[in-house]
Amino acid sequence: MRRVPFTLGLMALFMASPALSEIARIKQSSGTAFVERNAQQLKPAPGLQLLAGDRLVTGKDGRMSLTFVDNTRFAVGPNSRISVSEFQYDRTRQKGSFVTQVDRGSLAVVSGKIAKSDRDAMKVRTPNTLLGVRGTKFIIEVPE
Amino acid sequence: MAACLLLGGCATSSLVLLPDDEGHQGSVAVLEAGGKPTDAVIAQGNSRTKLGDPTPASQPLGDKGLKAQEAALLTSLPPPAKSFVLYFAQGTVTPAPESQAVLVALRSEIASRSGPQVEVTGHTDTVGSEEDNDRLSQQRAEEVLNWLAGQGIDRSLMSAVGRGERELKEPTVDNIGSATNRRVEVIVR
User: Fold this and answer.
1) pLDDT for the residue numbered A16
2) What does the pLDDT read at residue B159?
């Protein structure tokens, strides 16, 4: 039932645990949706590991949901373009910094440990604002 | 559409603020609007606020509540993380009798999730230095991760973290042994 791609299989040989640079995993996706990484478009299959700098893109019928290693949860709506421009997290101390850029579309967020670790440690940028997330649940919508 | 972007947006961005799943209300600070710093804080729960103004005004969601697409978005959020605590006979990976039932529940939770992540977190009591406990708890987490892999849990789902003495389940002063604190927490996301 679980198909492990060849490259992941190779990685598993070299590491005792998943890539420590993993910041989140895709949980679900539907419709036109992909993860853009260094000009590559990756299929957002459940379990795909995300890295800082990844961009989440959906078409008019697209959706994606993901959970970060600090327990932050995202739901991406249709016609969206969202990137995680910064994600650093110390799992031992549960402190870090997290910056998300919403260029367009909609994003529901339930914030996690980074938002709790320090005032405005988690921020969201839209085309004309910079927001500091102080531990909560919200939806941000940026029209095209 | 391009003209709207050049003009800085014909339709404005908005933020819907909600209480969290435990009913607590957080807030979102508008640190900058239109490139200028602001002091505005959006703190009213169940509200919608148009962003872009230096002093944004929040409107209650009211009787109409959320828009259909907003409600759909919330439904598609992944489930919250769930935590399982395992206890072992001191210094071993022999699970305490009550941990067998926990292992069954853990397996079931992992199987029920799409794209699961499993974080095996080691905790210590306050005996020893912080640095020693960081190292010990990391080591313990790795031992238990290996044990879980031996019990059939897919290694590629798991990672090990040591939290040292930072999260005492039972508050104690420094250098007090506590079996309650010496535990491994397995978090399923």
Assistant:
1) 41
2) 96
Question: Rounded to a whole number, what is the distance in Å from the CA of B133 to chain A's nearest CA?
Answer: 11
Write the pLDDT tens digit of every residue in B59-91: 999 888 899 999 999 999 999 999 999 988 777
Exposure string for A21-46, b = 16+ CB within 10 A, e = fewer: ebbbbbbbbeeebbbeeeeeeeebeb
Answer whether A25 sits within 8 Å of B32, measured CB to CB: no
- B11-30: pLDDT as tens digits: 789 999 999 988 899 999 99
Q: Is B80 on the interface with A (CB under 8 A)?
A: yes
Compute, in degrees rounded to 10, the torsion defined by CA atoms A46, A134, B20, A94.
Answer: 50
* A17: contact with B, CB 8 A cutoff: yes
Please, which residues 59-88 of chain A have a Cβ atom closer than 8 Å to chain B? 63, 65-67, 69, 71, 73-75, 77-78
Cβ contact B117:B135 at 8 Å: no
Q: Give B14's contacts in chain A (Cβ within 8 Å).
A: 140-141
Tokens of A67: 């959970």
- Put simply, the answer to whether A28 touches B156 (Cβ < 8 Å) is no
Burial of residue B114 (number of CB atoms within 10 Å: 0-12, 13-18, 19+): middle
The answer to whether the Cβ–Cβ distance between B115 and A143 falls below 8 Å is: no
Q: What is the DSSP string of chain A?
A: -----HHHHHHHHH-SSS-TT--EEEEEEESSEEEEETTEEE---TTPEE-TT-EEEE-TT-EEEEEETTS-EEEE-SS-EEEEEEEEEETTTTEEEEEEEEEEEEEEEE--HHHHHSTTSEEEEETTEEEEEES-EEEEEE--
